[in-house]
Design brief:
single chain; 136 residues; alpha+beta; 3-stranded mixed sheet; 15% strand; binds zinc ion
């Protein structure tokens, strides 16, 4: 299955590429840093170096297989490009990433662009959050 996806993206099938694609597809977390991928490979006893992980993820990004996010205060994280549009929330305390999609916000962004004489082409919205303060 991974072989087909790699070929479809115009990439030669190599073992590191297959392994890294498998990790991204089977991960509990949809957003992984290069270090996360590297650790997962080590846990699975796969001998792929960190430099290779970086290189392959960049190749995946260029081929449109994955999307890279550069959230503030952290490493780049990667997620598979498939799936519906969504925005992100990043917890500044735990680094946890939450996906959300809100129709109102989507609509509002289009309206704001139109108000300024533009058609909205794309957007990326990131909310930086922290756990709600507990009242004592
Ligand atoms: Zn996401």
């Amino acid at each position: 299955m991974e072989n087909q996806e790699l070929r479809k993206a115009g990439l030669k099938v190599t073992l590191p590429r297959i392994k890294i694609l498998q990790i991204l597809e089977n991960a509990d977390h949809r957003h992984m840093s290069a270090e996360d991928v590297y650790k997962a490979l080590m846990d699975a006893d796969e001998d792929v170096g960190l430099a290779t992980v970086y290189r392959v993820l960049t190749q995946f990004e260029n081929a449109g297989l994955v999307v890279r996010h550069n959230f503030d205060g952290g490493h780049s994280v990667f997620e598979l490009a498939q799936g519906n549009h969504h925005d992100h929330m990043v917890c500044v305390e735990s680094g946890r990433i939450v996906e959300f999609c809100d129709e109102e916000i989507e609509k509002l962004q289009k309206q704001i662009a139109e108000k300024h004489g533009y058609d909205l082409v794309d957007h990326s919205l990131v909310l930086y959050v922290k756990p709600k303060a507990q009242k004592k």
